[in-house]
Write a structure and sequence with these properties.
Number of strands: 8
Radius of gyration: 17 Å
Mean pLDDT: 90
Order of helices and strands: HEHEEEHHEHEHEEH
Distance between the termini: 40 Å
Length: 227
Amino acid sequence: MSTHDETAVSPTEPLEMTQQQLDTLAPYLKNLPNPVQIHYWGFEDASPEEQEALYLCRALADRFETITLRTFGRRKNHRLYPVLGFMGLEGGQKTDYGVRIIGLPSGYQLTSLIAAIQAVSFRGVTLEPLTRVRLQQLTQEVSLELVTSDQDEGGTMMAKLVFGLAVAHEKIKSYLLMSNMFPEVAIQYSAHTLPHLVINGRVHLNGVAGEEIVLQHIARAAGSRHP
């Protein structure tokens, strides 16, 4: 069942390709333990990618009972759209875990879309128990910006990790940025190889890395001891 704010975005019919995407995603989303609400920011008539992202989100909300959708227009001082946010719901109350996908999750990053929904629904239990224990030592705000693309298979593994970290600790926010849509992001962060993780805008990590390495880089960016 979906919930729409149609004052922000008008309804349209789904694209045919959405059904194929749904068939691919269904085995991973039909038995979610906790509800997830997707927040969509953008205007569907502003770009084909914004339109397709909205179609995809609507189709997910219409097909899976544990997924709902709210739609919003563009915000001031934000230049990249669409933006997808993934919220937890419990007793009708929303929890924003700081999980975002910026751009249309296409190609390999459809798997990252699944990872975002699962991370919120499973409340971050996909992380190693020791990682969750170490995260409790974190006291500073951390921003994880993952630069990837529709052709970056390694980005899916890093997305699962950064989304899990955001759900596991309230001070961590994670953003997946689709560089095939926004090449200026790759230029801004000198992301010559993908995936490319930027922590607090200054600590960079190239390629696929495990939880231990990412924790070390988070500690470095936060200027603290290893979480």
